[in-house]
Amino acid sequence: MSQNSSHNTHNTIDDNLTNAFNNSDSLDALDISAADSIHDDILQTFYNRENVAKIMMATLDYIDKQVKEGVILPYFDDIDAEQWQEKTKALDIYITDEDEGRELNLEARRKDYATNILSYPSDLPAAIIGLMPTLPLGELIICHAVMLREATEQNKEALQHISHLLIHGILHLLGFDHELGQVEQDEMERFEIEILSGLNIPNPYY
After folding, report:
1. CB distance 75 to 175 below 8 Å
2. Strand-strand pairing, 134-143 and 88-96
3. Predicted pLDDT at 168
4. Per-residue buried b or exposed e for 110-130, using 16+ beta carbons within 10 Å of the residue's own CB
5. Which of 37, 136, 160, 206 is the most buried (most CB within 10 A)?
6. What digits encode the pLDDT tens for the residues 190-201?
7. Between 204 and 4, where is the model more confident?
8. Which residue in 51, 56, 46, 2 sits closest to 24, CA to CA?
């Protein structure tokens, strides 16, 4: 859990993956929680556990292949590729409203507005990760209202936009950062487009 794991929540989905998802070793545990203001029907409609798990596994399987081809994960560059491949991964996702989203974005980035997604990497030393059976990636915080508004403004299906945001967020948890320069932006966008294509979701940058 990241520094934000203590949010006041009541909608918690314990998503230790069931046998339906055991055809991939990329994801060991997916924990989805939400603010009190996020109703259960929103979670079931937009953050259904099967869909979210599918997106996570597709992303991590893609990254595994990139690691095998020599891609370095910036936040895990002190862990050798074999150790990365062998360890199962864990991810926390928190869904919130615009008010809390604004507070969190102000605290994390000094920006006084709610953004679509925030990424909090686990930031654990390699020595600690080496002792853990599961590798924690960190936490993603999604502001549901912002996500819906963006999907409408960009003429995108909400579920496809969520898929893109989740992939984008996981890449940030691994250390990829489009704000570092054009090369980094192009690489990150290429990863996103290829992962989405594997999920039969169109290029979000058109």
Report:
1. yes
2. parallel
3. 96
4. eeeebbbbbbbbbeeeeeebe
5. 136
6. 999 999 999 999
7. 204
8. 56
- DSSP assignment of 23-82 equals T-SSEEEEEEEEETTS-HHHHHHHS-HHHHHHHHHHHHHHHHHHHHTT---GGGTTS-HH
Report the distance separating Cα 95 and Cα 145, nearest Å: 10
Residue among 49, 55, 46 nearest 24 (CA):
55
Instruction: Fill in the DSSP letter of residue 116.
Output: S
- Whether 147 contacts 118, CB under 8 Å: no
| 61, 90, 138 from 2: Cα distances, Å | 23, 12, 6
- Looking up tokens 């595994």 gives 64
What are the structure tokens assigned to 204, written together? Answer: 């979000």
Local confidence band at 26 (pLDDT 50, 70, 90 cut-offs): very low
The reported pLDDT for the residue numbered 187 is 94
What would the mean pLDDT of 23-50 be, rounded to a whole number? 84
Tens-place pLDDT, residues 173-187:
999 987 767 888 999
Task: List beta partners, residue 119.
Answer: 140
Closest CA to 37 of 113, 143, 114: 143
Residue 101 to residues 5, 12, 121, 183, Cα–Cα distance (Å): 14, 18, 17, 30
